[in-house]
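Structure Section — protein described below
Tokens — whole-number codes for backbone shape
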Amino acid sequence: AQVSLACLFPELFHDLDMLNASGGPLWSPMAHLRCCCHVKDDLALPVQSEINSTPVILNPDAEEDLRPGDFLVEVCRKSDDIPLFLLEVVEGLVFVSKPLEGIEVAWNSRHVDSSDTVTLGDRVVSVNGEATDTSKMLFDITQCLNLRMVLRHARQICVRVDKARRMLGMSVLVGAVKVDLKISRLETGVVTDWNQSHPKDEIKVGDRIVTVNGISGDAPSMLRELARTRELSFLVRRLC
């Protein structure tokens, strides 16, 4: 398999208020570091046949220091050609930027109604006992067949606002994966009004918008909805 641990992707900067006023996007290039593992297109076997879909206890005597929101994920692969998820490194911390079919088959399919489902924004706290060496964690995720990982869910905030002919006061970034929107700037507007009236659920620069009025997994569509719709309900995840 071809593995790339540090791929530089272009990103696009969007000022939502200017987008709303002009009816079209305002673009300027940004740069963003993402880590991902690529799978060859000519796999001889389907993903389902390459991953053991039954629970595998790698070390039943191992103890994990789990904080609230942490959960343990154990995966046993037959081949390192099977990618689990796209990863993003932010200030030395590793986060899931998009779950892929590998983790869906190996883990999420068995935890559909559980709080242990791997989702966008989850932090990879440790991999096979390693929690501080980011390079080794990334290497193990892409190369090791047996994985014991501690993940931590991002904090979720549900925001409801009505623009009512006012500025939203928020700019976002769309990454190469195009499944979420990263808040890059806040100015005076509806969002800062929300922050003043909801101090415990305030929105911050760096937060990720993952759903807008029921739209998810499609960043361009979410961007259009934010810019053009008056009444907004969007879900924000904070990497932690």
Q: What stands out?
A: The longest helix spans residues 134-143. The chain is about 20% helix and 35% strand. Residues 77 and 145 are 5 Å apart (CA to CA).
